[in-house]
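Support reply, case 0932

Customer input (verbatim):
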Amino acid sequence: MKRINKTLLYVFLGFFGVIQVYPLLYLFFFSLKSNGEIFGGNIMGLPEKWLWSNYEVILSKSDMPLYFFNSTLVTVISILAIIVLGSTAAYAIQRMKWKYSNLVLTIFLLGIMIPTQSSLLPLFNAFSAVDLTNSYIALIVPYISFGLPVAIYIFTGFYESIPLEMEESGCLEGCNIFQIYYYIILPMVKPAVATIAIFSYRNIWNELLFAVTFISQRAFKTVPVGLMSLTGRYSTKWGPIGAGLLLAVLPSLILYLLLSKKVQESMMAGAIKG
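Our regenerated output:
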C-alpha cells in the first residue's frame, strides 16, 4: 500500500512539474517560430523551421540590450536603497527607545495599504513639475517608496528576536551605534535581507505601470515597456517578441536555479519572524 501511495505521489508531482515547466517550453518554441507558423495552425507544436535569427533580431536589431541595462540599473539601485534605508529605519524604530517610535512604525506600515494606482497621477504631476519624467529617478523613487514599508515590517520582526545582550556586548567592546549595527546586527538578519531582495527584485523587474507612465523616451525604457514598444501599428513579428520575453525571464530563472535553497530558507524565515 505504501508503494502504491508513493507511486501515485510521484505521478502527481511529475504531472504538476510538467504543468509548471510547460509555459517556459512553450515560450521557447514560440520564440523560434515565424508569424506564418504562429497564425497558421502550428501554435502548440514544435517549430517546423527553428528561427534562431529571432534572437539575433532582438539582440542586435532592436533596443533590448539598452532596455536590459536600464532595468538592471534601476533594479539594483532600488534594491540596495530599500535594504539600507529599511534596515536602518527599522533598527532605529525597534532597537532604540524613543517616544514616537510606535507612531512612526505605524505611519510606515500604512504605506502597505496605499494602492500604487492611487499614487500614479500625483506622482506624475510632481515629477512633471520638476522635470523628472523620462529619468531613472522617476522610477527609482517610487520603487523605493513602495518597497520600504514591507522592508521595515520584515526587519522589525527580525530585530525583535535578537537579544539585547548582543548590543550590550558591543558597547562593552567600545563599539559605537553604527559599528554595532554593521558588525553585529546586520549579519544576524541576513535571511531578512535575502527575503527583501528577492521580493523587491520580483516587483521591480516586472513593474510596468510606473514605467509606462513616467517614461516615454527610448533611452530610459525598461524591459516591460520595451517589449510593448516592439509591437507594430500594422504588422508585428511575434517570434522576436517571444525571444525578448524569454530573455526577460532568464534572470529570474537563473536566480532561482542558483539560489533555490536560499530563496526557500529566506521566505520561510521571513514568514515566521516577520
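We compared this against your earlier run and they match. Two observations from our side: Residues 81 and 144 are 7 Å apart (CA to CA). Residues 63-229 form a domain with the MetI-like fold fold (CATH 1.10.3720.10). Please reopen the case if you see a mismatch on your end.
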